[in-house]
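Usage example:
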Amino acid sequence: MAQLLAPALPGRARMRRSAPAAVSTVALIVMIGVCSSLQPGVLTVEGLTLVLSATVPLVIAAQAQMTLMAVGDIDLGIGNFVGLVTVVSATLLVSSPLKGVLVLAGLVAAYAVLGLLIHLRQVPALIATLGASFVWLGLGLFLLPTPGGTTPGWLASFGAWQPAGLPAPLVPLVVVALLVYLLSARSALGVRMRGLGSNPVALRRAGLRPVASRVAAYATAGVLGVLSGLVLASQTGGGDVSSASSYTLMTVAAVILGGGSFAGGTAVPWGAAVGGVTLGLVSVVLSLLDVRSDMQSAVQGVIVLAVLAGRVVVGKVLR
Amino acid sequence: MHVDNLPAGGAAPPGTDTGPAGPPPVVTARGVTKAYGRTRALAGVDLAVRAGEVLGLVGHNGAGKSTLMRVLAGLEPCDTGTVLVHGRQASAGDFRTVRMAYQETSLCPDLTVAENMWVSSRHCLPRVRWRRAASDAVRRRLDEMFPGHGVSPRDRVEDLSLSRRQMVEIARACLVDRLDLLILDEPTESLGPDAARSLYAYVRRLTEAGTAVLLISHRIREVLSVADRVAVLRDGAVTAERPASGLTEPDVLGLMGAHVAAPPTFGAPTAAGTIARDTVAELLGATGPGLREVTLRVGKGEVVGLAGLAGQGQQEVLERLWRPVRRDTTVGVSRAYVPGDRQRSGVLPLWSVGDNLIVTALRGIARRGLRRPAEERAVVADWVKRLSIRGGAEAGITELSGGNQQKVIVARAFASPAGLVLLDDPFRGVDVHTKTDLYGLIRQEAAKGRSVVWYSSENAEMAHCDRVYVFRAGRVVAELTGEEISEERIIGVSFAEKGEDD
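Running the assembly step on the lines above writes:
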């Protein structure tokens, strides 16, 4: 009898786990519906491109945040880091491409070192990444004190890329989510990273080194942060270290909306993508609804709370 | 896949000392000592585990069993002395054939069963398509060990029940290309009797193939029935090593240094369990997930036991009494709950013993919302003394041994003003002394008019109850009172339908 019951049980558990992302998806569809009723042009390829493009860097940054939340850490420096990358791509990457690439690689390495320090010195990630965020901000202001600069040609042409019959932003959204999914959910390295967030003692007993998992997670987050910054620069056409400072908390919200948790252990690449797009769309809906811009943040917060409440309710029902 | 191979028989390399005692030792400890700070966990242990035998290791909590196991499994180096694997001084790699199944499990709850197998047995899995290989291997091993286990390799560990998690943990330990020594730490504490029997059948198959098994358990009768030899650990040293045949439970308890528990002398349950008492809580035909038509009542000052095989609805009853939201449940008094899974839902790990103990009683002691530290300290000191909690009120809760932590959790419930205390199998893995103290506490508090509802997976504990409800498949199948309560009777009733006694 147990054999018969077995397939039925995990189904429910899996449903419970994907419920948050499902709630976010519903919210997403509702918002697209509202948008298109206000502005029928939204449902065309051009409309969707316009609406979605602002969410791409946010979603990629959310994948970085998700990677760190999967090992049980949190990144409070991602916003300024993305800002710093836009600055590097608007200055060094134009004037001396090789130097620019080296600096970007150095930034990824800096993330890995940050992970190493957090692990070896037992510093809470919250504090270490918060401290790092000021370093990113300082470096960005040093390189480019006022917003400006130009992005290299290839980046600009990526920003202007318009494939036929398909909203361009969908491509980076899906490709990055797929890559992060393959890494975190399908690969052995992903098992090690989630295992670290889930039960580091078990990893150690099995002879795996938790420090390696943590450094790998931070390096991954660094790579994703650089990607996010490049995409953002390609859209804005310049560098501004504070252009992405709101990402820090938005990405956390995106991961939570997508079903992640602060406790670590779970990787939700698709959820983070849905959560990020949902969050990004909120501001589009609000501008279409003519909500006063000084009220937008507050209304955005209320909507996020409502979606989170929906997640809790669905979780209770499915228990 | 080579993870599925049973270990090669008599797997000792040539040239090891084949002593006069037959098979060669697989792992030998010589004069092993180990200290943590100022506490001396091991004080010179000499122990040999031979190929093809089951060695039972018994001792109180704090006798050094866990430390010894970690040293034998190569997880921790010893301070002085040597550990030999196959007669050679062991280096880290030699311990790969020594595997251990932990009592609290060493699984990652957020990973699937198959992924957990990769974590611990990745050396024996292919680099590509390891997920498929791990799934097949674990499914086959589980089928072999626990027929009808109901675990799928794709289940996440956090979704499994405690007993299934334990099965996975044991299968995890056995999943290796060559297994010389299997260390089982309290393997049956969360397993039901059926699974325990399957486990020991498998253990016997393993030993026939030449693997050595080290079995650690508080259930002495179980150790005696399974083990070939029994080693007694006391104060960090092996004080006795005997063949298991001919040894009885009191013998072993004596060797362990128990002033052998005179069975319950403290205020034995009132024989006339049916005295008319005020009802403080009752279920009337409660039906729901895991429960069918359960009717029971709890009187004032009564200790009510919930018995039967594990997972037959007892915990659901506790849940109902704890949160009486449905109309079929009425509870007239305030409640306190003692969880069974102390690691997960019991202790507040950053707090001291005193803070952990007083947290539920705080409100009762406080006046106008302000805490009264002097009174709190007095209450804490009283409980620490009553239960002789080692380390005192100021110690950090995680510095305590498991048994002492459990005392704090139980004291926390009884320190609160609650009129009904719910015990969710709180004495799993607790040593005899602590249990005796806590049984005494329960009877004393009941005599003061507190009611207790007590679920236990150990039927012998039910002797301390006034009345026992025996559960099977979500139903109450028997209500025993006073003299009727006995282990044999409970087992008989639990199995009655299957027509077999244990």
